[in-house]
Design brief:
The chain has about 375 residues and is an alpha/beta fold. It is built from 15 helices and seven strands. The chain has a seven-stranded mixed β-sheet, sandwiched between helices.
């Protein structure tokens, strides 16, 4: 039996987690500060959060925060410690929760309930190139080729060239789609499908195309989309983002598609801590599609995995067939063969975080 590897920490030199906090977060804070006409109080709070996360210790939420008790329960001795010593998954999740606090998202006033990331998501949906990129939807076959196309679109849905790439032969995908278990997804159908959604914008549009195709072809009799209950990780989809994507596609939400949420989707925990009510919900489906990089990290554990670790050994057993659809945007990856890993390490040292490579992995 393989030993469970250590959790990834924020401050480990040379690792991607440190790059996120020290290189990406400063730019993110600038974008958030400029997204709305915030006052000096909000902009100052954002700057203070950034400074704290780079050089300071983790501060708790204010006592009147609506989820203070939740974060107190999720603490593992991290409050009061340097951010650099905290596990990446927990720290990153808490950083985004603190952004909401900084911009007064929960506080009575003009910014209460205002999504700080909404302008960024709206700009993506306003891109006229989306009309071209989603024109392929009109000619999707109902055969297995159609399933391959909608699954690949869901994996690489945030790419601007997806319409052209879907027309290329399978061989052209061999160095980008590192593992493809779409055939195992096909074996799990027909039935009820649950999609644990990742991003809004063009990606949720691709997810809706997938859901509609499954329903229109009889592969699914109903589809449930699980989205975030609040703004999270910049582009993560909320219920309002589903509405916006439907409007952009020009197709109302199919009544056979349900949109649900749960507090756990914004918790700093991996799927081993999934509460019983949510686990029971997921087990009510024939198959669960787990979308995106963050959900992948939560599914297998945000740890320093050997990439040749079998996916079934690392992924949480949810009691239902699970298919992960993900592009690689963090160091966590499992289920690959040694030859593929050696080739990628030699040809593209940053393959784990570049977003160029995708995985369709079934458990």
């Amino acid at each position: 039996m393989r030993d469970t590897p250590e959790e990834l920490l924020v401050g480990t030199p040379g690792r991607y987690a440190r790059e996120v906090f020290h290189d990406r977060h400063p730019t993110l804070i600038e974008r958030v500060a400029a997204a709305h006409p915030y006052g000096e109080a909000q902009r100052s709070a954002l700057r203070a959060l950034l400074d704290e996360s780079l050089t300071g210790e983790v501060r708790g939420l204010p006592g009147d925060a609506p989820d203070w008790a939740d974060w107190d329960a999720w603490d593992r001795g991290y409050f009061g410690r340097p951010w650099a010593e905290v596990p990446f998954l927990w720290a990153e999740s808490y950083f985004y929760r603190r952004i909401l606090d900084a911009v007064d998202y929960f506080r009575a006033g003009p910014w209460q309930g205002v999504d700080p990331f909404a302008p960024m998501k709206a700009a993506e949906l306003a891109d006229p190139a989306l009309d071209r990129d989603f024109a392929w939807v009109l000619s999707l076959p109902s055969s297995a080729d159609g399933l391959d196309a909608v699954v690949r679109a869901s994996v690489f849905g945030n790419r601007a060239d997806i319409s052209f790439r879907l027309q290329e032969p399978d061989a052209a995908w061999s160095d980008e789609l590192l593992l493809d278990d779409t055939s195992r997804l096909a074996l799990a159908l027909p039935g009820s499908v649950c999609v644990v959604v990742d991003n809004g914008g063009r990606e949720i549009m691709a997810d809706l195309v997938l859901a509609n195709w499954l329903l229109d072809t009889g592969r699914a009799d109903r589809v449930t989309l699980h989205v975030k209950p609040m703004p999270y990780y910049v582009s993560d989809a909320t219920a309002s983002d589903v509405d916006d994507a439907c409007a952009r596609l020009g197709r109302p939400l199919d009544p056979r598609i349900a949109v649900r949420t749960h507090w756990f989707w914004c918790a700093p925990l991996d799927f081993r801590a999934m509460p019983a009510d949510l686990a029971d919900d997921l087990r009510g489906h024939r198959v669960v599609l787990v979308k995106g990089d963050l959900n992948y990290r939560r599914l297998v554990g945000d740890r320093d995995w050997d990439p040749t670790t079998p996916f079934a050994a690392a992924a949480v057993d949810l009691g239902v067939p699970v298919v992960a659809l993900r592009t690689c945007k963090s160091e966590v990856v499992v289920g690959l063969d040694g030859a593929t890993v050696a080739w990628l390490d030699a040809a593209e040292p940053r393959w784990r975080v570049s977003g160029r490579h995708g995985l369709v992995q079934a458990r």
